[in-house]
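Reviewers of the previous submission asked for a worked example of the structure-prediction workflow described in the proposal, so we include one complete record here. The input consisted solely of the amino acid sequence. No template or homolog information was supplied to the procedure at any stage.
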Amino acid sequence: MMVGSTIEKNFNKGENQYDWDITDVPPGRYRILGVVTDGKNPPVFALSEGRITIKRNDFLAPENVSVQQEDSLVQVGWDKVQGATGYRVYYQDIKENTPLAQAVSQAVWEDTTTKLGHLETGVTYRIAVTAFKEDGLESDYSVPIEVTFE
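From that input alone, the workflow returned the following structure tokens.
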């Protein structure tokens, strides 16, 4: 399943580049899919070989993210980020082929630890943490870590 949104339609013949306004794009890693159609022939698709990374460098991402399983929960911890009002912990099954921005998330106010419940046994999860400010500005993601819930 492919999830995405249109960046631009109706390129003029001969255009070979596009300046993409990423103001409203959440931080994450993305692949670009190009579709060319003339309305007469079958469309031609091209998927970027690599991914692009959208970063928000307004303030630092949390560092030293760690996880520890405690009974039926996973405790996630990280270092405090100067200027952060709270944090958002993103987590998803690694089999999901979507950006972390679309993953389940849990907000945490002031604390630098939280517990995640309702995880499925035997599933490997990707977990990353962002910091946010009072105005809603969100940092880049921490380095994602993967953990199998047992």
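The radius of gyration is 19 Å. We consider this example representative of the routine output the project will generate in years two and three.
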